[in-house]
Every structure is written in C-alpha cells, then in structure tokens.
Amino acid sequence: MNVQDLMETAKSLVANNKGLLAMDESNPTCNRRFAKLSIPQTEESRRAYRELIITTPSLSEYISGVILYDETIRQHKKDGTSFIKVLSDAGIITGIKVDIGAKDMAGHPREKITEGLDGLRDRLKEYFQMGARFAKWRAVITIADGIPSRGCIEANAQSLARYAALCQETGLVPIVEPEVLMDGVHSLSQCSEITEEVLRTVFNQLYTQRVMLEGMILKPNMVLSGLTCSQQESVDEVADATVNCLSRVVPAAVPTIAFLSGGQSAELASARLNAMNFRFKSRSPWALAFSFARAIQQPALEIWQGKEANVSKAQQALLHRTKCNWAACQGVYNAAMEGVGT
C-alpha cells in the first residue's frame, strides 16, 4: 500500500469542486432503464450510450472521476479507442464497481447482503493493471417495520470494511457506500437515526480492518423522509439533518463525503447538495461532493432514446447537470440555472 498515492488520489477526486459520475449500472439495471424508453437492450446499445457519456465535450471541467462497470471498463469507442484511454486523455480518473450485487440475506427476511468478496483481491489487481485507481462497493439498508436488524447492519459493515482494506492493499481508493434506501414511509428523524447507526457501525469496522481513513471516500445517502412519507422537509431542513447526522459519526480524517442521489430528481439532488455547502462548507471538515448516477444521467438518457441524431443534445443535458452539481459544491447553484443548456 502506497499511503501517499492513496491520499493524493482521494484528494484529486474532488479537486476544484468537481465530483464523480457513477455510470456503473449492472447490465440488468441498465437494460431495465433502456426498456422503459424502448431502447434496445443489447451490448452495443450499452456501449453506444457509455460512449456518449465519456465523450461529452468539457466533461472534465466538472467531473474528476467516473465509476465504470466490469463490461464498461473493457469497452471501446466505435473507432477502437478504449474507454480507459478516452478518460485518461481527458484527465478523468477511472473507477470500477467491484461488488456483485445485493442478495437476499439468509435468516433475515426483507434484508440484503452485498456479495463479491470471494476472489476480490485478484479482481482488484486486474482492474489496477487496466488503469483503475479507485473502486466502489455498495451496501443497501431498508427501513421498514422491524428492520434494519443489527445482523444486517453489522454484516454489511464488515463486508464494506474488508473490501476497503483489500482496495488499499492493491493501491485503489475505496468508495464506501452504505445506502439507507429512500423507499418507505419513514420520517426524517427515523432516517437520521438509522443512518447514524449504520455509519457508526461502518466506521467501527473500518477501524477494526485497519483502513486508512485519509485514503478513502464515503458515499452515503442524504438524510431524507421516505418517498411515501406524508411529510417532506424543505431543502434547508434536509441539509441540516444530513450534516448534523454526519458530524456525529464521520471522522474529520475522511477527506470527502460524496453523496449518492438514490432516486432523487436531478434538480432536487443539486438543490440539497447546494444547501449543505452554502450552510456548512466554511466549517465542514470534509469536502461535500457528489457521486450521482441517475441525477446526472437520466435527462440525457431520455433525450438520447438510443438515436445517433440525439447524441449532441443528450451530451448538452449531461454537461448541464454536471455543471449544476459543480456549482452546488460551491454553494452557488440556484434554480435559475435550470433550463440553461438543455
């Protein structure tokens, strides 16, 4: 493990108020999104869509790193140039999703455990040799009657920590993603309580597994009421609840908190991130950044529709969303920015 390289990569991933673009959807997930828009669910369609994303002009002005999927990291542009080279030439750091998905957890009905530790050391070495310099592992926690259980939280926390230790051994910065899902009727206070418990458990395991906090990135959910909860708090209330929760459990040694979007609308994710930076940036011990997937990609996907003629307009929409989130990282995003460049 090269400590200095890990620390420098972690800092580079959010330098100049930039963030991360997550385009690490598994093939089944990508196909489901394509199906909703009647886009052919083929490898070539997935390749063409990913080429659209990574060749977006000026993407590197707002995005420092891109998270890929195993299929994606091996793909090429139509002219034969590897995606890794395209990103490297643009000054964008390549990342890779390395878990193999959340599966039903034995003995814990309605709960999931993320799998993929078997053989992970060898896979990480291969990805590093291919050019990846950071990785991602996602755990999912559901709030409902009687759950999450301690067993589910502890099992996922241990897997995240073991993954992170293996990443750092290999030279990859681990993105640690414990996601408390938005689905449900839970209140903001319930989400805050569970998020705090999850993060406290995760960091206990990171310490136990001797993960260097300065060489990792935390990718948490924002603290939100459930999607079907009758009370939905204001942008500022969400910002306060989220940062207050994180302040209780995330060590200052962690350089960056890069939020997931988790199904929020593109505009709302930007507004909430902006409120956090506007209100807390000057005194936050960590950079408050973004690692969004749908909240950046979805508008572009809906414009593209699988048609070559729509590529340029789709790229404009994608760039617009990255610029909005770059502004949000500075606390200068506002609703007047919407509609520009789309």
Could you tell me the mean pLDDT? 97
Taken in chain order, the helices and strands follow as HEHHEHHEEEHEHEHEHEHEHH
CATH architecture call: Alpha-Beta Barrel
Oligomer: single chain
What about the largest sheet? Answer: 8 strands, parallel
Any idea how many domains?
Answer: 1
- Under CATH, the topology is which? TIM Barrel
**Secondary-structure content class:** alpha/beta
Number of helices: 12
| The CATH superfamily title | Aldolase class I
User: Could you name the CATH class?
Assistant: Alpha Beta
* Percent in helix: 40-55%
How is this fold's topology laid out?
Blueprint (H helix, E strand, L loop, with lengths): L2 H10 L6 E4 L4 H10 L6 H12 L8 E6 L1 H4 L9 H7 L3 E5 L4 E3 L7 E3 L5 H11 L3 E8 L8 H21 L2 E8 L7 H21 L8 E2 L16 H15 L6 E4 L6 H15 L6 E6 L1 H11 L6 H18 L14
Structure description:
With 342 residues, the chain is of the alpha/beta class. It has a single domain (3-337), classed as Alpha-Beta Barrel (TIM Barrel). Helix content is 45%, strand content 14%. It has twelve helices and ten strands. The chain has helices at 3-12, 27-36, 43-54, 70-73, 83-89, 120-130, 150-170, 188-208, 235-249, 266-280, 294-304, 311-328; strands at 19-22, 63-68, 93-97, 102-104, 112-114, 134-141, 173-180, 217-218, 256-259, 287-292. Strand 7, helix 8 (188-208) and strand 8 (217-218) form a beta-alpha-beta unit. The longest helix is centred in the middle third of the chain and has 21 residues, at 150-170. It starts with a helix and ends in a 14-residue tail after the last helix. The mean pLDDT is 97.
